[in-house]
Specification:
By secondary structure, the protein is mainly α. The protein has three helices and two strands, in the order ααββα.
């Protein structure tokens, strides 16, 4: 009896991501042969991107600083959230190593081979 080849269906983007981030997630997941642990990293990257955008929107609305109870200017907490989320996003992308460098064995293969 022959084994049937395992056909992986294209994973679905997590519903809690913003629509633009879900679209990006689906494009990456559909364009690369990613293992389950890569998909988790991709999800974390999407969450980090969304958190960055949320912090940016709060900063745009409320500004970079506020005055504390003594009237001294203080940096809003959203500034740190934005910074930390940007760093997390960049590090997760680096960890996924999706740069289009043909033949690099350290990154997941592109689905359908190299596309130039």
């Amino acid at each position: 009896m022959q084994k049937k080849p395992v056909v992986k269906k294209t994973p679905t983007a997590p519903k809690h991501l913003r629509p633009a981030t879900r679209k990006w997630w689906s494009a990456v997941a559909g364009g690369w042969a990613l293992e389950d642990h890569h998909l988790r990293l991709l999800t974390l990257a999407g969450e980090s991107w969304d958190r960055t955008q949320q912090a940016r929107e709060a900063i745009d609305t409320n500004g970079l600083t506020y005055n504390d109870r003594f009237g001294a200017p203080r940096t809003r907490p959203e500034v740190a959230v934005e910074r930390d989320s940007r760093l997390a996003f960049a590090r997760l992308l680096r960890e996924l190593n999706l740069d289009d460098t043909a033949g690099d064995p350290s990154r997941p293969p592109r689905v359908g081979g190299a596309q130039w």
